[in-house]
Amino acid sequence: MIKPILNLTVSSLMAMSTISVTPFSEPARDDDFKIFLDNQSYVANIFSLQSTRLTQGHSQYEIWAGSYWPIHQGLLGQRYADPDFPKSKDYLTNYNDYLLRPSELLVIAGSINRLSPAEKYDLLVGDSNWTLTKAMWARGQKTLQQYGYVPTWTGICHGWSAAAHMGVKAPRQSVVVTDVTGHYTIEFYKQDIKALMSYLWAESSTDSIQAGNRCRQDVVLKDQYQRPMDVSCLDSNPMSWHLGVTNRIGMYQKSFVMDSTTGSEVWNFAVKGYDYSYFNPRTFETTHSLKAALEPVENMTADKFKNYRSPRTKYIVGVVMDAFIPSLVTPAVNEGRNDRTKSYNFVYDLELDESYNIIGGEWHSHARPDFIWSYGATGRAMTTEDLALSESWDLDNRLPDSYAARAIEASQKGKVLSRIAEALLNESVNE
């Protein structure tokens, strides 16, 4: 049994705070799983989910292991292949090392393979000002000036998870190309290509669709049953989560992204798949039998969430779900397998109406998704500079002048060309 963090009653907490409290367990208006289904049909009946074998499922796409390219290590300015790079948790330590060993010095010394993904990109396009690289480190400078430190959790996990769940393939091999001047041969490692694709989707993607709200509180006030008092910190409703997973992933084999943590931090992960069983919410006995787990609401005399149950609730069923996500890895030249996986265990109950349709629910586990999001089916990451390019790039030849010019224009906006990032990826996949 989970012990309450605060030994206070619901009424006393409400008296202490002006935060908004929701009375029922039904999803809020902005927590609608149907937004992920592109107007396609869905299943919301608990028995229909069982009979159509949607108790487990997985995405049709390869959801690859990757990095969130943390800001405190320079984002794509991180020299992960350089054994002399400190890789400190302190931004200034990493930034000072970059300043003491400028990009030009590594190139002159013939250490191109030690350059960061951003530095390789700048060298490729002939940018002597190292515009993209400077933009990477400037993000940390801005954060440092604003907050006095650079949190270690901030980065572009939203870009990595976006690229992976939208079907961007994982690179298979390193790619060797010639820069725009014809002077340098540059090897882009698999992690370099992953970094560029992740950053492309982080900074140049289309508008996202979202269900649920982000909780921005560092300390979340809860009642004696560990239920957040503030509506924005209730996280994705179990109904929205369950029907989003079973329909989008189980029925249509499409992934989406979840913020895997409660509270103010955001850790985005693409969901690869899921598998769930049941428990009886009155006895808490686990079972694979839906009928054994189903409990009429009138039998739930000791239900700790009874004051929040929807008036339409006739039955309650407990769910234990394993959600599978790609592993978070530290960038390395020899990065290992792309299919490394981690799992989250979510425990919750679902409220059912008289026809056994899911109408709401409550979380039992501390682990739960804060919010879930994705892009429309036609979503793509690209820049306005990409639209100005008509010629193709044969990677056996040096980068075209037109690509270099547009790339530098995009770098000045803190973006990378999709034409370059995708060309590198396609070559890596096809080798």
β-strand percent reads 15-25%
Give the helix proportion (percent range): 25-40%
User: What's the total count of β strands?
Assistant: 13
Residue-averaged pLDDT: 90
Structural class: alpha+beta
- The outline comes out as elongated
Q: Largest beta sheet, briefly?
A: 7 strands, antiparallel
As for the number of domains, it is: 2
Order of helices and strands: HHEHHHHHEEHEHEEEEHEEEEEHHH
How far apart the termini lie comes to 54 Å
Low-confidence stretches: 1-21
Count of helix runs? 13
Describe this structure in words.
The chain has 13 helices and 13 strands. A hairpin with an 8-residue loop joins strand 5 (257-259) and strand 6 (268-270). It has two domains: 24-61 and 210-375, no CATH class; 71-206 and 379-430, no CATH class. The protein is 29% helix and 15% strand. Helix 7 crosses helix 8 (190-204) and helix 8 packs antiparallel against helix 13. The model is unreliable at 1-21 (pLDDT under 50). With 431 residues, the protein is of the alpha+beta class. The strands form three sheets. Strands 1, 7, 8, 9, 10, 11 and 12 form a seven-stranded antiparallel β-sheet that branches. The chain has a four-stranded antiparallel β-sheet with strand order 4-13-5-6. Strands 2-3 form a two-stranded antiparallel ribbon.
Can I get a quick summary?
The chain has helices spanning 10-16, 46-51, 91-100, 103-108, 117-124, 131-147, 157-165, 190-204, 238-251, 290-293, 384-387, 401-411, 418-430; strands at residues 56-58, 175-178, 185-188, 208-211, 257-259, 268-270, 273-279, 286-287, 295-296, 315-326, 341-352, 358-363, 372-375. By secondary structure, it is α+β, with helices and mostly antiparallel strands. It folds into two domains: 24-61 and 210-375, no CATH class; 71-206 and 379-430, no CATH class.
